[in-house]
Amino acid sequence: LISDAVVRKLEDIVGSENVSTSPTDLHVYSYDASIAHATPDVIVWPQTTEQVSQIMKLAYEEEIPVTPRGAGSCLSGGPLPLKGGISITMTKMTRILDLNPNRLQVSVEPGVVVDRLNEYLQPHGLFYPINPASSSIATIGGCVGEDAGPLRGVKYGTTKNWVLGLEVVLPNGKVIHVGSKTFKHVAGYDLVRLMVGSEGTLGIFTKINLRLAPIPEAVAVASAFFDSADAAGKGVRDAILSGVDPSGIELMERAVVEAASKHAGLKLPQAEFLILYEIAGSKESIEPRVRKLTKVLKEAGATAVDVAYEAEERARLWKARKAAFPALSRLRPTCIMEDVAVPIDNVGKLLEALRSLAKKHDVMVATFGHAGDGDLHPTITTDERDEEEMKRVAAFRADMYKAVVDLEGTITGEHGVGITKKPYLKLQFREDEIEVMRSIKRAIDPKNILNPGKII
Length: 456
Ligand SMILES: Cc1cc2nc3c(=O)[nH]c(=O)nc-3n(C[C@H](O)[C@H](O)[C@H](O)COP(=O)(O)OP(=O)(O)OC[C@H]3O[C@@H](n4cnc5c(N)ncnc54)[C@H](O)[C@@H]3O)c2cc1C
Known about the structure:
The chain is an alpha+beta fold. It is 37% helix and 21% strand. The chain is built from 16 helices and 19 strands. It has helices spanning 4-14, 23-28, 49-62, 114-121, 140-146, 153-156, 191-195, 229-241, 254-264, 283-300, 311-322, 324-328, 347-361, 387-406, 425-428, 431-444, and strands at 19-20, 42-44, 66-69, 86-89, 96-100, 105-108, 126-127, 163-169, 175-179, 204-211, 213-214, 218-226, 248-253, 273-281, 304-308, 334-337, 340-341, 364-370, 375-382. Strands 12, 13, 14, 15, 16, 17, 18 and 19 form an eight-stranded antiparallel β-sheet that branches. Strands 5-6-10-8-9 form a five-stranded antiparallel β-sheet. Helix 1 (4-14) runs antiparallel to helix 3 and helix 8 packs antiparallel against helix 10 (283-300). The structure holds flavin-adenine dinucleotide. Flavin-adenine dinucleotide binds at residues 32-33, 67-75, 78-79, 90, 110, 132-134, 138-139, 141-143, 145-146, 148-149, 199-200, 204-205, 325-326, 414-415, 451.
């Protein structure tokens, strides 16, 4: 697909050390954290907006597909170049450009890793709240691409709530700036929201202006144990309705707690469902809120509630939660992390539906996730080489998406449609609605060169 002449032009733009056609590199860049794969013809690592713009101008002229990539931790195939072409990998654009504590804003390049940003902000008493479980590797650009969700979504929402402005290179190479340096603006269509979660199909982000939050004075994490899906669902809903203002509510079912405890070398109490609640705020507010939360959870059916105040103990619990996917992925040769969300009063019903569908299709499914956002990750452990089992997995997935839509939910809360959920978008939207999405894509990318074949 790509001639030697084009490779030479790319080398002229970014330097030969930032271009690769080595079969080993191409192989590595054929994967993300899903089970899909697609191989690029060439990888480029730009370092400036100007280079990104020149690459896009070249690609536009030559009609070469270009797929943006951050750390490649996507779970839906987003950074995989379905049509080959250029993998434009943003991991060398890692500068933190402008911190303005008085405005609670920071401007960064897209390759900055989430945890690195928070390490940088910590001495200033600030933090960027959107910390996905992959925060040690995920880039800010990739998080904007997917509208990633954090472990603290109940209070802080998702990436879209924290992006104030973007510098975007369009498919034709033009550079635009969208958004505003204010916390609110309604000047024209909201192009920031259009770009956030666009999965690399509308533009390439080269600068991102983020809103920040002050680090809370004190934090506690309550672990609550439930022995039924219904009680766990009530424990999620009632905690939110109680007004104790949890910042995060994260759920793990028994199989996940077992695997994660083993993987992370931790001893956690076993229960059908373990739910972690983060309570953060002023020192004096914590104790009364924790007391009220404990009472609410017991009334909802929790069999026990433990509270961790010390940083070390809290870190231990988050370590277990963050270990969920790596731990499950060791159980069998293939691991598929799904991502579905329902309104918060339907979490219990979703947990029940997942258990009954797993049984019906005879597949191994272990569920965890951001329950306070109604967002769960039913994770299938299986073996891609077993055709019979993969048919059952496919049947489970199809039934699961139907059940989620019936519960007024969405086929993806944060991982994106990418490749793996594309066939199911029509369960959630009618053709007229999908056609509006198509027409936006056509208007911005008339030659369909940016991450073609994704979402719609
Ligand atoms: C163990 C594990 C835990 C996870 N936990 C969470 C979680 O808690 N919450 C969550 O939301 N996700 C989670 N994920 C999924 C994933 O980490 C996130 O989607 C993350 O935001 C992807 O970042 P990345 O840098 O890896 O981007 P990539 O995977 O490389 O790319 C993601 C998408 O963004 C596009 N993109 C990348 N950079 C740019 C750019 N500069 N401009 C335009 N488009 C771009 C790509 O084309 C692609 O479509 C997890 C994944 C793993 C493996």
